[in-house]
Automatic annotation (TrEMBL):
InterPro entries: Acrylyl-CoA_reductase_AcuI, ADH-like_C, ADH-like_N, ER, GroES-like_sf, NAD(P)-bd_dom_sf, Zn-ADH-like_protein. It comes from Azoarcus taiwanensis. It is an enzyme of class 1 (oxidoreductase). This is Acryloyl-CoA reductase. The keyword Acyltransferase does not apply.
Length: 331
């Protein structure tokens, strides 16, 4: 295999993260049974933290970025996969301590690879990517803990982001009354188009003044932001409500009380897309290709080429990005 183009994240002599497009020798691919020609990758918040150094994501330098990839198998020493198969590889150490999807080629352990489910093409798989997988995993975790549409409304925080937008779309089509919490008044129509029945603006709520318990409103919650907003979400949950804790876009701290848990039986469910193993991983992807497949995937997705990638990350860190970004590589 000839040297190939890749987005490489390194540390300089002062341990500062530096990243950019470069060329990688095929001999430097990491170990694994399955080699892919990458057709598409995507940008998640975590990719932006990794590429800019804003978060402590990369665990082995240099590392090709990109926690998501979808493409075609070109070599496989594992009986589950053969050349020509269309596959998805996300999560585990990909784009963290194992070269990731922002490259023309990638090699990964077969245990990290999911066959592309019927009902999705490679582009759609990356329009979903880790964001869609995580939103769906959050829904599955809440359903497994008793959430159903007749229990009451479900609130989604960080609503205009990748996980948020896809969670709204999925929950709405399952019949939930979805409430979108956003700081962006200008995106009200967009959020309604995705299926939000109500929009709540962050400016309307004084999160700093949240009491240990507030009037109970939500049967379920998908929280992408953490911090004071998660404290408020917990305090406003209905009896036996379920909260999927997904993100830290606002803060990784939470300061809260035990009252939602001991007086309302609220469950705070951890959602870790990274190391969720099989068969749940396959079950979630199969649902993403079926009843959870968002109806507005095209409307929430923009596509950029690999050459545009270096300039794309800062907007994620500033919280200015809407929906999903697919990176076209070898398609
Ligand atoms: C798609 C998924 C997502 O988007 S999740 C959101 C993106 N992730 C983040 O923002 C987390 C970034 N990580 C950090 O900020 C730091 O590693 C945190 C968690 C604060 C800990 O920092 P610090 O106190 O400096 O310690 P450290 O990095 O040496 O780690 C301490 C022990 O924890 C472990 N750890 C770290 N990161 C992970 C991880 N992602 N998954 C599982 N374990 C993790 C480290 O290996 C370390 O353990 P050990 O001491 O080596 O045994
Ligand atoms: N647990 C997991 O396995 C997992 C998987 C994927 C994403 N995540 C996390 O979920 C979060 C969302 O990921 P994404 O890919 O959708 O990111 P994104 O950048 O597409 O969306 C982030 C959203 O949060 C909002 N936001 C940013 N800063 C904020 C602030 N200070 N207060 C309130 N809202 C703010 C943004 O406006 C945007 O709507 C991130 O924290 C990410 O790390 C976790």
């Amino acid at each position: 295999m000839a040297p190939f183009k890749a987005f490489i994240i390194e540390q300089d002599e002062n341990k500062k993260v530096v990243s950019g497009l470069g060329t990688m020798e095929a001999s430097r691919l990491d170990a694994g049974e399955v080699t892919l020609k990458v057709h598409y990758s995507s940008i998640n918040y975590k990719d932006a933290l990794a590429a800019t150094g804003a978060g402590k994501i990369i665990r082995r330098f240099p590392c090709i970025g990109g926690i998501d990839m979808a493409g075609e198998v070109v070599e496989s020493s594992d009986g589950r996969f053969k050349p020509g198969d269309h596959v998805i590889a996300t999560s585990f150490d990909i784009g963290v301590s194992h070269h990731g999807g922002y490259a023309e080629y990638a090699r990964v352990p077969a245990d990290w690879v999911v066959p592309l489910p019927d009902g999705l093409d490679l582009f759609e798989a990356m329009a979903l990517g880790t964001a869609g997988f995580t939103a769906a995993l959050g829904v599955v975790r809440m359903e497994d803990n008793g959430l159903a549409p007749h229990n009451g409304p479900v609130i989604v925080t960080g609503a205009t982001g990748g996980v948020g937008a896809l969670a709204i779309d999925m929950l709405a089509q399952l019949g939930y009354h979805v409430v979108a919490l956003t700081g962006k008044a200008s995106e009200t129509e967009y959020l309604k188009m995705l299926g939000a029945a109500e929009i709540k603006l962050r400016a309307e709520i004084d999160f700093e003044k949240t009491r240990p318990l507030e009037a109970a409103q939500w049967a379920g919650a998908v929280d992408n932001v953490g911090g004071q907003i998660l404290h408020w979400v917990l305090a406003t949950m209905k009896q036996a409500g379920t909260v999927a804790s997904i993100g830290n876009a606002a803060s990784f701290n939470i300061s809260t009380t035990v009252f939602p848990f001991i007086l309302r039986g609220v469950s705070l469910l951890g959602v870790d897309s990274g190391y969720m193993g099989f068969p749940t991983r396959q079950r979630v992807w199969d649902r993403l290709a079926g009843d959870l497949k968002p109806r507005h995937l095209d409307a929430v997705t923009r596509t950029i080429d690999l050459d545009e990638l270096p300039g794309a990350f800062d907007a994620f860190i500033r919280g200015e990005v809407k929906g999903r970004t697919v990176v076209r590589i070898g398609a």
